[in-house]
Amino acid sequence: MSSPVTTGTSGISRLSALGWDDTFAAALPGGTVPARVARVDRGAAEVAAADGPHHAQYSARVRRAAAENPVALPCVGDWVALRLLAEGRYELEAVLPRRTSFVRGGVSRDSRGGLSGDGQGQVLAANVDVVFVAEPAMHATDFADLGRIERLVALAWESGGTPVVVITKADLFDQGLPDLLADVAAAAPGVDVHAVSVHRGEGVETVRGYLPPGRTAVVLGPSGAGKSTLVNAMAGAEVMVTQQVRAGDGRGRHTTVHRELITLPGGGLVIDTPGIRRIGLYDMSDGVDRVFADIDELAERCRFSDCGHNGEPGCAVIEAVESGDLPERRLASWYKLQREAAWMAARTDARLRAEQTRKWKIIHKEIRRSNRNRP
Predict the structure, then answer these.
(1) What's its EC (predicted)?
(2) 308 has binding-site annotation
């Protein structure tokens, strides 16, 4: 199978067009050649090197590292070191240190059938400069979808990339589009928000402008958001397969089942992704804080420095909700993401896990004591 990355240039110039620079070069092991992962298969990857595309099997070293920690598994966008074997094929010897990485928390089924984090993440894309958060216009006004935008933007900030919200299928939401964009901008302060209609050819070049030669973007969003259609429009060709929208709800039936690195005409690269049904926070530090900078600013005026905005006297955040200056939905979303980020951190930190257990023991003890004292 051929690589999805085109082969119009050669040598260092070709690698530079794929995002290669001196920082990656300094980490390259001796006796190896660099390549960028365009697509991953089971135990192997399609990569783009200076001399063109290759299919490279993982080395034993890479397989061992991935078995110990799934985050070490090669992913689309990674720069890797290839070693030429005696039989003339390349082997993927190592994954070079990632400049940025978009990681979602591990999710699995617990013994009761519910969803639970497993404390291990999955890298969706690596070495990404821009994260396009795609949301279809006809669904972006729902509270749940504004929450999804907040979640993905938080993860985008955490990845090290720059988030950009793209409201797709804008032609299906002519009335009130400026108000919609204002609501989305309020849910993602400090983030560029653009409306795009591929059908009308509106906004595509604006989005394309974020990707000069050598820069990489990933497109994230739910199934039916028009991600592959947007990628095709930026590429000027059908590089990703799409289907017609479903009757009744106007949403697309997303057919992408893998992540793939696409080179755009004139430079720039983009990674399309399958629709995301659920994405958990992983190793979150300040991504949530950046999305909810307005709440942090209000919190500085709270009476207590450790105010949890949950009924304490003199809480400026609750006062803003009561006055209508802060949407109640937004505070509820902040609560949810803060709890999830703290819980995921506890899954990967033994000290925090012990502290969480101690607190819950105290809470349960107080509950039992209260129940015994009831008449």
Answers:
(1) 3.6.1.-
(2) no
- Which architecture does CATH list for 9-97? Beta Barrel (2.40)
Q: What is the pTM of this model?
A: 0.78
171 known member of a binding site: yes
Residue 256 annotated in ligand binding? no
Amino acid at 236: G
Residue 226 known to bind ligand: yes
Q: Give the list of residues 6+ apart from residue 356 with CB closer than 8 angstroms, or none.
A: 346
Is 129 one of the annotated binding-site residues? no
Q: Is 19 annotated as a binding residue?
A: no
One pLDDT digit (tens) per residue for the chain, 375 residues: 333 433 344 577 889 999 999 999 999 999 999 999 999 988 899 999 998 899 999 999 999 999 888 889 999 999 999 999 998 899 999 999 999 988 866 543 333 333 333 445 678 899 999 999 999 987 666 655 898 899 899 989 988 999 999 999 988 876 788 888 999 999 999 999 999 999 898 999 999 999 999 999 999 988 888 888 999 999 887 766 655 444 344 444 444 457 889 999 888 999 987 755 455 555 556 788 899 999 999 999 999 988 989 888 999 999 999 999 999 999 999 988 888 777 766 666 655 566 667 777 776 676 676 656 655
- Annotated ligand binding at 114? The verdict is no
Question: Left if phi > 0, otherwise alpha if psi is -120 to 50, otherwise beta: which for 19?
Answer: left
Query: Where do we find the tokens 């090197």?
Result: 49
75: annotated binding-site residue? Answer: no
List where CATH 2.40.50.140 sits in the chain.
9-97
Contact 50, 33 (CB under 8 A): yes
Per the annotation, does 228 bind a ligand?
A: yes
Q: Which CATH number fits domain 285-372: 2.70.70.10, 3.40.50.1360, 1.10.40.50, 2.60.40.1180?
A: 1.10.40.50
122-241+258-278 homologous superfamily: P-loop containing nucleotide triphosphate hydrolases (3.40.50.300)
Q: Is 222 annotated as a binding residue?
A: yes
Helix axis angle, 316-323 to 328-347, nearest 10°: 140
Is residue 313 marked as binding? no
Q: Which residue has the tokens 């920082």?
A: 23
